[in-house]
Design goal:
Shape: globular
CATH topology of the largest domain: Rhomboid-like fold
Number of helices: 11
CATH class of the largest domain: Mainly Alpha
Number of strands: 2
Radius of gyration: 20 Å
Largest sheet: 2 strands, antiparallel
Helix content: 55-70%
Structural class: mainly alpha
CATH superfamily of the largest domain: Rhomboid-like
Number of domains: 2
Bound molecules: zinc ion
Length: about 300
């Protein structure tokens, strides 16, 4: 952790875009023209965290930390109904930390929850399953697209997934059960489906059909499993895939072009907004949480 804070101020680094040696103090890479190739002196230490610059670890530990927090603020409300709902945090504690869906977004005006909900989970199996997928697919997306683009793809997918399920939950309740959205929704699966979408887009953009077909198959199979398992947010999955795919087709994210300085700045903005969405959720939700707890 502390190593992450150590800035390199002298010597050379490997340019993150073209892999040539560049002096740390160089503002622009003389080989490929990438701005700020040393990433303010953090290029080497970020690179030791993997292609994703540590983003996947951040998602994993962030989700685990928030899962424990949602359990601990309301220990009496923890439910254990069957293997699928082992160690489930209470609805009010999920609401407190930023669950999304028709109720938070349309009835409580907690619109920022479309961002926070991707970091919350509804049970031990739910979080284990999602984090295993992120750990598996995330580094691969980072390798193909770059760490900054990974963060952007993941964030947009979470937002679109949450948005779609909230809208469906509010307006599509006349439709058959299977097409219902969620009144309360949580989980990183929208982001995971977004990563699948990015890899399908990668196959189309680069012509690497093996990658595209493999992840298209994963997305379809997991999507169909969602229809036979109870309480799965199918709109969140569909929206996540759509968001991840659509953003990946924008030329600025073209995986054939190296990632630049601005991608990392946008990624940092995404991370700050995500953190804010959780902080605001807790601040705004505390009076409601207290009221629900005292009932
Ligand atoms: Zn370069």
């Amino acid at each position: 952790m502390f190593k992450l804070l150590k800035r390199q101020t002298s010597g050379s680094i490997v340019c993150p875009a073209c892999s040539q040696l560049v002096k740390v103090e160089e503002p622009v890479c003389p080989h490929c023209g990438r701005q700020n190739p040393s990433i303010w002196g953090f290029a080497r230490v970020l690179r030791t965290r993997g292609y994703d610059y540590g983003f996947i670890s951040l998602v994993i530990w962030g989700c685990i930390g928030l899962y424990l927090a949602t359990l601990l603020v309301d220990v009496g409300g923890i439910r254990n109904s069957g293997a699928l709902n082992l160690l489930s945090p209470s609805g009010r504690s999920l609401l407190l930390f930023g669950a999304t869906g028709a109720i938070p977004v349309f009835e409580l005006d907690r619109w920022w929850s479309v961002l926070s909900s991707g970091w919350l989970h509804g049970g031990l199996l739910h979080i284990a399953f999602n984090l295993a997928w992120i750990n598996d697919v995330g580094p691969f997306v980072a390798k193909l697209y770059g760490a900054g683009r990974l963060v952007l793809i993941y964030t947009v997918a979470c937002i679109i997934g949450s948005l779609l399920t909230s809208i469906a939950g509010e307006y599509f309740n006349e439709l058959p059960d299977i097409l219902h959205g969620a009144s309360l929704s949580i989980g990183a699966s929208g982001g995971i489906f977004g990563l699948f979408g990015a890899l399908v887009a990668y196959g189309q953009i680069t012509g690497d059909s093996a990658v595209g077909q493999k992840y298209w198959k994963y997305a379809v199979i997991l999507f169909l499993i969602g229809f036979i398992m109870p309480a799965v947010d199918n709109w969140g999955h569909f929206g996540g895939f759509l968001g991840g795919y659509a953003i990946s087709r924008i030329p600025w994210l073209n995986p054939s072009t190296p990632e630049g300085h601005n991608h990392l700045l946008v990624a940092i903005a995404c991370l700050i907004l995500t953190l804010l969405s959780i902080v605001v959720s807790v601040g705004h939700g505390l009076p409601l949480f207290m009221a629900l707890s005292n009932r």
